[in-house]
Predict the 3D structure of the following.
Amino acid sequence: MVPFEKNFYIPHKNVEGMKKKAVDKFRVEKEISIVKGDKIPNPITSFEEANIPDYLMRSIKLQEYKEPSPIQSQGWPIALSGHDLVRPILITVLVLF
């Protein structure tokens, strides 16, 4: 069986060229926390940087959205790059009798 790579993300030139200081500042301003991981893609700061199809951009403009939400800004590049956006965690429930 041929392995399937889940990387569909093509970063916009503005996103690729963001300096670490600008990325860090954006994440602080938008309250985006990266708990762990490596090779985390830079966030998008506008819908134009998302490289989404024209029909979706038209819909976004019709709805008058100005900019991506923080979860969209960082989540879309992470998810489309094939990384886990939310990792499963073990939840322990303490039952008191």
In short: The two ends are 52 Å apart (CA to CA). The longest helix spans residues 70-80. The helical segments are 13-16, 20-29, 54-62, 70-80. Residues 13-80 form one domain.
